[in-house]
Specification:
- With 181 residues, the chain is of the alpha+beta class.
- The protein has three helices and six strands.
- Strand 4 and strand 5 form a beta hairpin.
- The longest helix has 22 residues.
- The protein starts with a helix and ends with a helix.
Length: 181
């Protein structure tokens, strides 16, 4: 399935950002089952679910309790189920497609607001807008983008990347986390 088709079938927009990538995610089996906690790293997020890179294979349709704290201190908790699993090439890690089963309305609204703001920021960056960062942005305090404008500093002029730039793949993301550990 093509990425555009996948995005169109999603209920909520999915996003990824440097300030969120790699956030630690903890998963525990739901009762009556028990076992060791699985830890993984956030790859992308939406109000409906997330992509998670983990060293363990988590079978599809298993229910787990998920907890994650984003860099700004916002905690997300939900019962989740695994919808898709892909073994990463040349590595032992697995990329899991996760669906949130009981995300609170507060958490849903917060993630939707983050998605809207990050996607708008991406659009401003792509258009090379004179003002990329806005003070009202949910991620303003933790933003790690190179375009981030310091308070009271003149705006930074951004140039578009050449068309032949090779953007990171899932394998690149895996290598990044492996090297960082």
């Amino acid at each position: 399935m093509k990425v555009a088709e996948q995005q169109n079938r999603r209920k909520f927009p999915r996003f990824s950002d440097r300030s969120l990538a790699g956030a630690q995610v903890s998963l525990d089996l739901c009762a009556p089952f028990f076992g060791e906690r699985v830890n993984g790293h956030l790859i992308d997020l939406s109000a409906g679910g997330m992509a998670l890179l983990a060293p363990n294979l988590i079978p599809k349709k298993v229910f787990l309790k998920m907890s994650m704290t984003l860099p700004d201190g916002f905690s997300i908790e939900s019962v989740i189920t695994v919808r898709h699993v892909t073994k990463q090439k040349n590595h032992d890690d697995f990329l899991h497609g996760i669906e949130f089963m009981n995300l609170s309305p507060e958490m849903t609204e917060r993630i939707q607001r983050m998605a809207t703001e990050i996607l708008a920021c991406n659009d401003r960056t792509q258009r090379m807008a004179s003002s990329i960062c806005v003070q009202e942005c949910t991620l303003n305090q933790i933003c790690k983008r190179p375009q981030r404008v310091a308070k009271n500093a003149p705006p930074v002029q951004i140039q578009s990347a050449p068309a032949d730039v090779k953007w990171p793949t899932a394998t690149d993301v895996e290598d990044f986390f492996r090297e960082a550990a």
